[in-house]
Amino acid sequence: MRSQCGPPEFDEQDFSKFDFSRWHLDGLTLDSAAAAVAGLTEKLFNSEEWRQHFEATLPEFQSRTLDFFKQQLKDLRQERAATAEDFEQRAKAAEQRADDFRKSIEVTAAPVVIDAVPDVFLGLVRVVSEKDPQLGLPGVRVKILDPKNEKVGLVESITDLNGNAILAVPAEMAKERDQQDLTVQITDSKDKPVAKFDKAICIRVGQTEERVVKVPESAAIDENKKEALEIRSERETHARELAARSESLRRESQEVLAVIDCRLKDTEGIVAELEKKEPSPVSPAKADAESPQSEPTRKESPSPRKRGRKPR
């Protein structure tokens, strides 16, 4: 498949025996179909109809052709500028999306900031792997135990995909245990204790508290850790894809602009060639000089005076 730009390619032909001084195709090796077309072409250009009706209009046709290619050249330049701007905007937008996603990943590695609610205590507990403190464990149960009976949980919640659990202590319960340090317990999906942290969180009415607890490695959290690693891997893969998108757009931009530049170069060459061959306007003086001379008017000689006798 031929490139979209560049001159067309033709089969090589031996023109050494071709006489370019007149229209004929003698000496060329042609098959029957090409010979028939060549014969018709030769008859066309040698015909009286061509000379009378078409040959005289060639300068006007050349001028119109030049105008067409000039407009095409202008359109190509505008197309190139618009294409370059469009690709650059898309690349910058891709970079912004990649940057925003990287920041969102960084946010997931830290406890969520929660707003206070009047008369209610809100506790945010982030559960992470002791071996990998940046890895939040999803799907584990977090409890605040009752100091009077630690077998009973006051409130509990399940960690989200980032390992965060929000524990809301109601107003009456919060007022009763205000300023008390309570124990936080981590259990698996079957409510089997995994870890316990004494005095991990302090109840304060109308306030919030964020805590990070590190759970020791054990078989009880293997499934949670596996899920957390899969989530991390998916996010990192997506981040790389977003980062590569801007580079891909810029490479694609270079390829598209290279094709447009090639078309521009070809069109500029055509315009230059047509301008070089464009017939120059004929000046009035030259037109008068080239116009057929009218026959000079004959001046009549004065009639001869009649001879008479001189007065004496």
What does this structure look like?
46% of the residues lie in helices and 18% in strands. With 312 residues, it is α+β, with helices and mostly antiparallel strands. Helix 3 packs antiparallel against helix 5. It is rod-shaped, with a radius of gyration of 47 Å.
Largest sheet: 4 strands, antiparallel
Order of helices and strands: HHHEEEEHEEEHH
Question: What proportion of the residues is helical, as a percent range?
Answer: 40-55%
Q: Tell me how many strands there are.
A: 7
Question: How many domains, in number, for the residues?
Answer: 2
Seen as an oligomer or otherwise, the chain set is single chain
Question: Secondary structure elements and their pairing?
Answer:
Layout: H1 32-46, H2 48-54, H3 58-108, E1 121-129, E2 141-146, E3 149-158, E4 164-169, H4 171-176, E5 181-187, E6 193-202, E7 208-215, H5 222-277, H6 284-290
Parallel strand pairs: 1-7
Antiparallel strand pairs: 1-4, 2-3, 2-5, 5-6
Helix pairs in contact: 3-5
Summarize the structure.
The chain contains six helices and seven strands, in the order H-H-H-E-E-E-E-H-E-E-E-H-H. With 312 residues, it is an alpha+beta fold.
What are the salient characteristics of this protein?
single chain; alpha+beta; Immunoglobulin-like; 2 domains; 4-stranded antiparallel beta sheet; 3-stranded mixed beta sheet; 6 helices; 46% helix; disordered C terminus
